Amino acid sequence: MSPPTLAGNVLRSLAGQVAPGVAALVALPYLLRGLGADGLGVLHVTWAVIGYFGLLDIGIGRALTQAVAASLARRDVAGLGRLVFTGCATLAAVGLVGALIFGLAADWVAGSLFGVAGALRPDAVAAFRLVALALPLVTVSAAARGALEAQQRFDLVNRVRIPMGVLIYAAPAVALPLSHSVAVATGVAVVVRIGGAAALLWLVWRHTPAIGGSWRWSRLAFRGLVSSGAWMAAANLIGTVTQFADRVALGVWVSMSAVAYYSTPLDLISRLSIVSASLTAVMFPVFSAEHATRGTRLGGLALKSAGYTMLSVFPPVLVIVALAPELLTWWLGAEFARASQVATRLIAVGTLANALAQTPFALLQAMGRARVTARIAAIELPLYVVLLWVATKAWGIDGVAVAWTVRMTVDSAAHFVLAGAGVERAEDAGRAFLWTCLTASAVLAVVVLIPGPWARGAAVPVGLALCAWPLRHVLDARELLQRGRALVARAR
After folding, report:
1. What's the domain range around 400?
2. I need a surface site. Which of 16, 46, 179, 427 has the fewest CB within 10 A?
3. Cα 61 from Cα 78, distance rounded (Å)
4. Does residue 91 lie in a domain region?
């Protein structure tokens, strides 16, 4: 088998994130009808808890990816088995503690925190306790996936990610004819998660060099992972709290149906970050290896990664901002569109900012500057909580979207500024990328003011052309053409 290429790994990672988005697009309308707005709100919370359970990662998953990639770059593979096993075992223990706490607190979370009442409350409590069962393997799977990605084995990761990502949405929808219980929908999703985690662990054991002969705990590896992962853990913990705070604010201060009106477009639109997530998943071990070997391409690689993110995420964001009322009406109905169209537009803008931030975030952590990302998150957290409280009380769902988008925009700008200070300068490309971002911001602000869907739709290609002009200096047009031809040839 030929070794994996960087472009091929990006495409594999991209495929692993597109498939769940398609499944969500199809399944969410059925789940809304079958569970109701309140029931779907509870289900969104269970997905968020599982998805954001990186808060108990304590930085081990990302630190493991960095350590394995650096070891491979230095051709030091003797201790990989002990390194990977120590990371997985540590996260298993942390996950067990988290599962115990969350399981015991399920009744309080459902009743006191989210205010779920009536017949839905025992159903929600059961759903949250089922989520607790999955948490230990969810944390372990983060380490297993990180070890495979450090080796650029995205082909193996996606053998698990694609079916698991599709079934997370499809399985609860398929179960609706049997039961309209949120607990049942959560249970089948939990089974999918457990199966995916088990598959990832098996793949790590099979494919990590010499792991079969060194599958044991190492105190030295533990100290190294905890030391390098501590700042990553702080950034991940605070980031997870701030990302989950929007749904908590809606559930506590508005209603569970408001969680559904907000989270349903958020869940789908946030998947526009699939290219940035795919790029950074591939580029993080590349950044780590480049830094470990004292390479000089970090700045150029990071700018290209951010440029490809803008190239892929901005067009659909512009379409959503321009045509949000019409798209929501077609997808989920006129009532849902009236409640969510402003929030949907804001979420799309925030998603673009969040997607762009992933490159400098990964770059800083790959360079061993995770404390910078932690400090940014620590400064943002209290400011975000205050803004979230004020905006939610004033404007409800739209206020939550305002607070979330402001936070994502400020976070992205801060990461770019601080990451740029630590690498060699690429002045021309850097200025061109800045102009691209400013132009994109102006286009998004103007298109909302245009009356009528046809006029707004006609403005989309004009806005894309305006942003493409400065972006061409970030990305080599000839390189793009060559890559496009290679993809066509491969498809044939």
Report:
1. 233-492
2. 427
3. 20
4. yes
